[in-house]
Amino acid sequence: MSEDIQAGLAEILEEVAGVAPADATPEKSFTEDLDVDSLSMVEIATEVENKFGVAIPDDELANIKTVGDAINYITANRG
Amino acid sequence: MSSTDDVVVTGLGATTPLGGDVTSTWEALLAGRSGVSRITDDWITEFPAQLVARLAEDPAEKIERVRARRLDRSQQVAVVAAEEAWRSSGAADAGVDPERIAVVFGTGIGGALTLLGQDDVLEEKGPKRVSPFTIPMLMPNGPAAAVGLAVGAKGGVHAPVSACASGAEAIRWGLDLIRFDRADVVLVGGAEACVHPLPMAGFAAMRAMSTRNDEPERASRPFDKGRDGFVLGEGAAALVLERGDAARARGATIHARLAGAGATADGYDLVAPHPEGEGAGRAISAALRDASLTPADIGHVNAHATSTPVGDTAEAAAIRGSLGEHVLVTATKSQTGHLLGAAGALESVFTILALRDQIVPATANLDDPDDDAAVQALDIVRREPRRAQLSAAVNDSFGFGGHNIALVFTTA
After folding, report:
1. How large a percentage of chain B has pLDDT more than 90?
2. Is the CB of residue B124 less than 8 Å away from at least one CB of chain A?
3. Residue B274 annotated to the active site
4. Domain span at residue A64?
5. Is the dihedral of CA B132, B133, B135, B138 positive or negative?
6. Angle subtended at Cα B125 by Cα B113 and Cα A76, rounded to the nearest 5 degrees
7. Quick check: B397 and B405 in contact, CB under 8 A?
């Protein structure tokens, strides 16, 4: 369920970067809208792997620009 | 500007085992309270030295959560102390050009908790799980950098590392930055937070720590015959330095003048102090010359005195040889424990408050002064604080590596 993934991702964003859960909506850009820096993106990727069991390689991480991109990636790669 | 123009202290900050700020720490010190307790964690059972002086207040609770999780504890304490000093100085409202604000903040050990914690992650979970914030959290310039960011300093951020002299060395660098007109306002200090099994084991292996485990509050006993080592403490302290004329022009509260500084190296041994405190005494004499003062002018010394058998007697000889026997000496580590790279900064804060309040804190646990001739000759304040007329005071600090720093403060 992508709602579950969005909620889980919102939890990670709040913990790692202090993003209010209500702001973690699919159209938001991590860097432009949510002020998430590159080191925090690496930390988010680690937490995504912990929570969803989905590893995000660095070249894929570079293509993930928005919350929606992350939700789609997790959805497509979850076992 | 010439070195005779004055540099003044306009802000003070601290977070220590005695209190979460300067006022509570100073009150606890004068009241004779101890910050030392026995560690009860499971890992301590095999350790010969089990005592520690932990912070009275958790710094992470005073910093916004996301910001705090990206700062090592050594950076957190630095930020807490520095922000208190900065607020109290009023410098933020004085319209100082950020390019004329500098930071000098030392640490002895750096981000040890992050280094060791992330090594555990590496061993248990592999390299991909190591935090991307590992390096900025463990680097020894981390406290200085975090403080620089906190106050928006763009005039240079520096991080002297000289073991337990680091905090005092930062103050000396700050003095020079203002004298050489590199900056108008300098936020200086020291930070340490390394209560962890590895540093505890390393210091214990040197036989440097007290093993008086059953009497925590009586374990740190500088100059006492029964002293058997230091107690590891954590915390930070900070001072705001600026030119006297500028501070007076903006109506700032001036706590004291930083009148001079002296720095020497023992050239003797990597760890052991020179037995007669030769380098330490030279540092004190150099600081007096720098301040254009004589030994007779100095009324008080806040000693480095860590409660180790060899260190305290060497320092007593240095103080006696460079200043004489009239000075009122105190050793506040008897209550705070040894804050390593923060020690010189915290003890400078105490020295300044002693001048401000005209009172010398007592050396706790000094029941039976050492038979050493210099210890016997010095007037070491004990049992209770002593009122005195003070116009100038010295704080000295020494670090493994043979680093010696002496600072001279005078009344505002």
Report:
1. 97
2. no
3. no
4. 2-77
5. negative
6. 125
7. yes
Residue B331 to residues A57, A62, B209, B305, Cα–Cα distance (Å): 56, 56, 16, 6
How far away is chain A from the Cα of B137, in angstroms, using its nearest Cα?
Answer: 12
Comparing CB atoms, the residue among B66, B129, B132 nearest residue A18 is B66
Instruction: Give, for A27, the enclosing helix (H) or strand (E).
Output: none
The reply to whether domains B8-249 and B259-411 share a CATH topology is yes
Extents of the domains making up chain B = 8-249, 259-411
Residue of B nearest to A17 (CA): B66
Q: What is the pLDDT of residue A1?
A: 61
Tell me the per-residue pLDDT of B130-156, one tens digit each, with 9 for 90 and over: 999 999 999 999 999 999 999 999 999
Architecture category of domain B259-411 in CATH:
3-Layer(aba) Sandwich (3.40)
**Which residues, at least 6 apart from B69, have a Cβ–Cβ distance to it below 8 Å?**
none
Say yes or no for a CB contact (<8 Å) between B132 and A16: no
Q: Tell me the C-alpha distance between B256 and B9, whole Å.
A: 5
* Mean pLDDT value across chain B: 96
How many separate domains does chain A show?
Answer: 1
Across the interface, do A17 and B133 touch by the CB < 8 Å criterion? no
pLDDT in the model for residue B44: 95
- ipTM over 0.85? The verdict is yes
Report the CATH number at residue A35: 1.10.1200.10
Q: What pLDDT does residue A2 have?
A: 78
Picking from A70, A72, A49, the residue whose alpha carbon sits closest to that of residue A61 is A70
User: Average pLDDT of B51-56?
Assistant: 98
Best of B67, B70, B124, B149 to mutate (most A CBs within 10 Å, chain A): B70
Q: Do A17 and B64 touch (CB under 8 A)?
A: no
- Model confidence pLDDT, tens digit, residues A30-63: 999 999 999 999 999 999 999 999 999 999 999 9
Contact status of B387 with chain A (Cβ, < 8 Å): no
Report CB contact under 8 Å: B66, A43: no
* Cα–Cα distance, B115 to B119 (Å, whole number): 6
Q: Which residues in chain A have their CB less than 8 angstroms from residue B64's CB?
A: 18
Homologous superfamily of domain range B8-249: Thiolase/Chalcone synthase (3.40.47.10)
State the pTM of this model: 0.96
- Does position B4 have pLDDT exceeding 50, yes or no? no
Catalytic residue among B158, B255, B274, B338: B338
pLDDT digits (tens, 9 = 90+) for B288-308: 999 999 999 999 999 999 999
| CA distance to partner chain A, nearest, from residue B66 (Å) | 6
